Amino acid sequence: MSLYAIGDLHLSYQVPNKKMDKFGKVWHDHEEKFVENCRKMVSDEDTLVLVGDHTWGRKMSECEEDFKYIMSLPGKKILTRGNHDMFWDSHKTDKLNEQFAGKLQFLQGNFIPYGDYALVATKGYTFEGPFYLDSRGRIIDWDEKEAAKAEKLVEREYKRLVEAFEKAAEAGYKKYIMFLHYPPTNVLQKESCFTRLADQYKVDQVIYAHCHGEARYDDSIKGDFHGIKYSLVSGDYLKWKPQLIIQ
Q: Per the confidence metrics, is the pTM higher than 0.85?
Protein backbone atom coordinates (compact mmCIF):
# COMPACT_ATOMS: atom_id res chain seq x y z
CA MET A 1 0.00 0.00 0.00
CA SER A 2 1.55 3.32 -1.13
CA LEU A 3 0.52 6.98 -1.12
CA TYR A 4 0.96 9.06 -4.29
CA ALA A 5 0.19 12.70 -5.12
CA ILE A 6 -0.16 14.95 -8.15
CA GLY A 7 -2.01 18.20 -8.82
CA ASP A 8 -3.48 20.34 -11.56
CA LEU A 9 -5.17 17.89 -13.91
CA HIS A 10 -7.25 20.80 -15.30
CA LEU A 11 -9.67 18.44 -17.01
CA SER A 12 -11.99 19.95 -19.61
CA TYR A 13 -14.05 17.17 -21.17
CA GLN A 14 -17.24 19.28 -21.03
CA VAL A 15 -15.59 22.69 -21.51
CA PRO A 16 -13.23 21.99 -24.46
CA ASN A 17 -12.44 25.69 -24.93
CA LYS A 18 -10.37 25.39 -21.71
CA LYS A 19 -8.06 22.68 -23.05
CA MET A 20 -4.49 23.32 -21.84
CA ASP A 21 -2.60 22.52 -25.08
CA LYS A 22 -1.69 26.17 -25.67
CA PHE A 23 0.54 26.09 -22.60
CA GLY A 24 3.13 23.83 -24.18
CA LYS A 25 3.96 20.34 -25.37
CA VAL A 26 3.81 18.88 -21.86
CA TRP A 27 0.05 19.52 -21.86
CA HIS A 28 -0.66 17.79 -25.20
CA ASP A 29 -2.87 14.75 -24.49
CA HIS A 30 -1.92 15.02 -20.82
CA GLU A 31 -5.06 13.13 -19.81
CA GLU A 32 -3.93 10.03 -21.72
CA LYS A 33 -0.33 10.34 -20.48
CA PHE A 34 -1.53 10.52 -16.89
CA VAL A 35 -3.84 7.50 -17.18
CA GLU A 36 -1.04 5.45 -18.72
CA ASN A 37 1.43 6.42 -15.96
CA CYS A 38 -1.13 5.75 -13.23
CA ARG A 39 -1.82 2.26 -14.54
CA LYS A 40 1.91 1.52 -14.52
CA MET A 41 2.60 2.96 -11.06
CA VAL A 42 -0.56 2.90 -8.92
CA SER A 43 -2.35 -0.26 -7.78
CA ASP A 44 -5.93 -0.57 -6.54
CA GLU A 45 -4.56 -0.94 -2.98
CA ASP A 46 -2.73 2.40 -3.21
CA THR A 47 -4.03 5.91 -2.47
CA LEU A 48 -3.75 8.81 -4.93
CA VAL A 49 -4.13 12.39 -3.64
CA LEU A 50 -5.10 14.89 -6.34
CA VAL A 51 -3.89 18.27 -5.11
CA GLY A 52 -6.42 20.71 -6.52
CA ASP A 53 -7.50 22.18 -9.88
CA HIS A 54 -9.24 19.02 -11.02
CA THR A 55 -11.66 20.44 -13.56
CA TRP A 56 -12.55 23.59 -15.46
CA GLY A 57 -16.25 22.87 -14.92
CA ARG A 58 -17.81 25.64 -12.89
CA LYS A 59 -20.80 23.60 -11.70
CA MET A 60 -21.31 19.92 -11.09
CA SER A 61 -23.21 19.36 -14.34
CA GLU A 62 -20.09 20.54 -16.22
CA CYS A 63 -17.81 18.14 -14.29
CA GLU A 64 -19.55 14.81 -14.79
CA GLU A 65 -17.17 13.49 -17.46
CA ASP A 66 -14.15 14.77 -15.54
CA PHE A 67 -15.26 12.90 -12.43
CA LYS A 68 -15.82 9.74 -14.45
CA TYR A 69 -12.21 10.06 -15.63
CA ILE A 70 -10.95 10.52 -12.06
CA MET A 71 -13.01 7.63 -10.73
CA SER A 72 -11.60 5.37 -13.48
CA LEU A 73 -8.04 5.87 -12.18
CA PRO A 74 -6.53 3.06 -10.09
CA GLY A 75 -6.39 3.28 -6.31
CA LYS A 76 -8.37 5.20 -3.72
CA LYS A 77 -8.72 8.83 -4.75
CA ILE A 78 -8.57 11.79 -2.36
CA LEU A 79 -9.21 15.27 -3.77
CA THR A 80 -8.07 18.55 -2.19
CA ARG A 81 -9.41 21.94 -3.25
CA GLY A 82 -7.72 24.20 -5.82
CA ASN A 83 -8.34 27.79 -6.87
CA HIS A 84 -10.09 26.73 -10.10
CA ASP A 85 -12.40 24.17 -8.47
CA MET A 86 -15.54 26.31 -8.72
CA PHE A 87 -17.82 23.28 -8.31
CA TRP A 88 -16.58 22.91 -4.72
CA ASP A 89 -18.18 25.16 -2.12
CA SER A 90 -15.79 25.10 0.84
CA HIS A 91 -18.76 24.91 3.22
CA LYS A 92 -20.20 21.85 1.48
CA THR A 93 -17.28 19.42 1.63
CA ASP A 94 -19.36 17.03 3.74
CA LYS A 95 -22.04 16.96 1.02
CA LEU A 96 -19.44 16.06 -1.62
CA ASN A 97 -18.22 13.23 0.58
CA GLU A 98 -21.79 11.99 0.93
CA GLN A 99 -22.46 12.29 -2.82
CA PHE A 100 -19.33 10.36 -3.81
CA ALA A 101 -19.21 7.95 -0.85
CA GLY A 102 -17.24 4.84 -1.73
CA LYS A 103 -15.86 6.46 -4.91
CA LEU A 104 -13.97 9.64 -3.98
CA GLN A 105 -12.98 11.48 -0.79
CA PHE A 106 -12.78 15.26 -0.49
CA LEU A 107 -10.25 16.82 1.89
CA GLN A 108 -10.60 20.48 2.89
CA GLY A 109 -10.37 21.79 6.45
CA ASN A 110 -10.65 18.24 7.79
CA PHE A 111 -8.44 15.15 7.92
CA ILE A 112 -8.39 11.63 6.49
CA PRO A 113 -6.57 8.78 8.26
CA TYR A 114 -3.81 7.01 6.37
CA GLY A 115 -2.21 4.34 8.54
CA ASP A 116 -0.50 6.14 11.43
CA TYR A 117 -0.80 9.46 9.59
CA ALA A 118 -3.49 12.10 9.41
CA LEU A 119 -3.70 13.71 5.97
CA VAL A 120 -4.70 17.37 6.43
CA ALA A 121 -5.40 19.91 3.73
CA THR A 122 -6.72 23.26 2.68
CA LYS A 123 -6.49 25.23 -0.56
CA GLY A 124 -4.01 27.71 0.88
CA TYR A 125 -3.19 31.08 -0.64
CA THR A 126 -0.21 33.30 -1.32
CA PHE A 127 0.41 36.77 -2.77
CA GLU A 128 1.31 36.48 -6.47
CA GLY A 129 1.62 40.13 -7.40
CA PRO A 130 1.53 42.45 -9.25
CA PHE A 131 5.27 42.80 -8.69
CA TYR A 132 7.32 45.67 -10.12
CA LEU A 133 10.71 44.83 -11.61
CA ASP A 134 13.89 46.74 -12.34
CA SER A 135 15.75 46.56 -15.66
CA ARG A 136 17.41 43.31 -14.55
CA GLY A 137 14.10 41.62 -13.75
CA ARG A 138 14.54 41.87 -9.98
CA ILE A 139 11.51 42.59 -7.78
CA ILE A 140 11.80 46.09 -6.32
CA ASP A 141 8.19 46.75 -5.25
CA TRP A 142 4.66 45.32 -5.34
CA ASP A 143 1.00 46.33 -5.21
CA GLU A 144 0.31 47.04 -1.53
CA LYS A 145 -3.48 46.91 -1.89
CA GLU A 146 -3.40 43.51 -3.56
CA ALA A 147 -0.92 42.28 -0.95
CA ALA A 148 -3.33 43.35 1.83
CA LYS A 149 -6.20 41.50 0.12
CA ALA A 150 -4.03 38.41 -0.18
CA GLU A 151 -3.21 38.48 3.52
CA LYS A 152 -6.91 38.22 4.38
CA LEU A 153 -7.24 35.13 2.19
CA VAL A 154 -4.06 33.65 3.67
CA GLU A 155 -5.52 34.12 7.16
CA ARG A 156 -8.79 32.42 6.16
CA GLU A 157 -6.97 29.40 4.73
CA TYR A 158 -4.60 29.27 7.70
CA LYS A 159 -7.56 29.04 10.09
CA ARG A 160 -9.04 26.19 8.04
CA LEU A 161 -5.76 24.32 8.25
CA VAL A 162 -5.49 24.91 12.01
CA GLU A 163 -8.98 23.43 12.37
CA ALA A 164 -7.90 20.36 10.39
CA PHE A 165 -4.83 19.83 12.58
CA GLU A 166 -6.86 20.29 15.76
CA LYS A 167 -9.41 17.69 14.64
CA ALA A 168 -6.66 15.23 13.82
CA ALA A 169 -4.84 15.85 17.11
CA GLU A 170 -8.08 15.42 19.07
CA ALA A 171 -8.52 12.06 17.33
CA GLY A 172 -5.11 11.02 18.66
CA TYR A 173 -2.91 11.48 15.59
CA LYS A 174 0.68 12.62 16.04
CA LYS A 175 2.01 12.10 12.51
CA TYR A 176 0.86 14.35 9.69
CA ILE A 177 1.18 14.99 5.98
CA MET A 178 0.02 18.45 4.96
CA PHE A 179 -1.45 19.30 1.55
CA LEU A 180 -1.89 22.76 0.05
CA HIS A 181 -2.84 23.70 -3.48
CA TYR A 182 -1.03 27.04 -3.45
CA PRO A 183 2.68 27.00 -2.58
CA PRO A 184 3.41 27.53 1.13
CA THR A 185 5.44 30.69 0.44
CA ASN A 186 5.59 33.26 -2.34
CA VAL A 187 8.68 34.49 -4.17
CA LEU A 188 9.34 37.15 -1.50
CA GLN A 189 9.09 34.87 1.54
CA LYS A 190 11.49 32.53 3.27
CA GLU A 191 8.71 31.26 5.57
CA SER A 192 4.99 31.82 6.18
CA CYS A 193 2.18 31.00 8.58
CA PHE A 194 1.83 27.69 6.71
CA THR A 195 5.47 26.69 7.19
CA ARG A 196 5.30 27.73 10.85
CA LEU A 197 2.20 25.56 11.32
CA ALA A 198 4.04 22.66 9.70
CA ASP A 199 6.88 23.25 12.17
CA GLN A 200 4.47 23.44 15.10
CA TYR A 201 2.89 20.07 14.32
CA LYS A 202 6.19 18.52 13.19
CA VAL A 203 4.66 17.28 9.95
CA ASP A 204 6.61 14.77 7.90
CA GLN A 205 5.89 16.31 4.50
CA VAL A 206 4.25 19.34 2.89
CA ILE A 207 2.84 18.72 -0.59
CA TYR A 208 1.68 21.53 -2.91
CA ALA A 209 0.89 22.23 -6.57
CA HIS A 210 -0.27 25.31 -8.57
CA CYS A 211 3.15 26.36 -9.97
CA HIS A 212 3.12 25.88 -13.76
CA GLY A 213 5.89 26.33 -16.33
CA GLU A 214 9.64 26.19 -15.77
CA ALA A 215 9.73 29.85 -14.73
CA ARG A 216 7.45 29.06 -11.77
CA TYR A 217 8.82 25.75 -10.53
CA ASP A 218 11.19 27.43 -8.06
CA ASP A 219 8.68 29.95 -6.66
CA SER A 220 8.57 28.21 -3.28
CA ILE A 221 10.33 25.70 -1.04
CA LYS A 222 11.42 22.34 -2.42
CA GLY A 223 13.36 19.70 -0.49
CA ASP A 224 14.29 19.79 3.19
CA PHE A 225 13.25 22.83 5.26
CA HIS A 226 13.44 22.65 9.06
CA GLY A 227 13.58 18.87 8.77
CA ILE A 228 10.35 18.70 6.75
CA LYS A 229 10.24 17.51 3.13
CA TYR A 230 8.51 19.98 0.78
CA SER A 231 7.38 18.71 -2.64
CA LEU A 232 5.91 20.43 -5.68
CA VAL A 233 3.55 18.00 -7.45
CA SER A 234 2.07 20.07 -10.30
CA GLY A 235 1.26 17.65 -13.11
CA ASP A 236 3.37 19.43 -15.73
CA TYR A 237 6.32 19.58 -13.30
CA LEU A 238 6.06 15.80 -12.73
CA LYS A 239 5.55 15.10 -16.46
CA TRP A 240 2.26 13.43 -15.44
CA LYS A 241 3.88 10.76 -13.27
CA PRO A 242 2.35 10.72 -9.77
CA GLN A 243 4.92 11.26 -7.02
CA LEU A 244 5.42 8.58 -4.39
CA ILE A 245 4.89 10.15 -0.95
CA ILE A 246 4.94 7.08 1.33
CA GLN A 247 5.68 3.49 0.34
A: yes
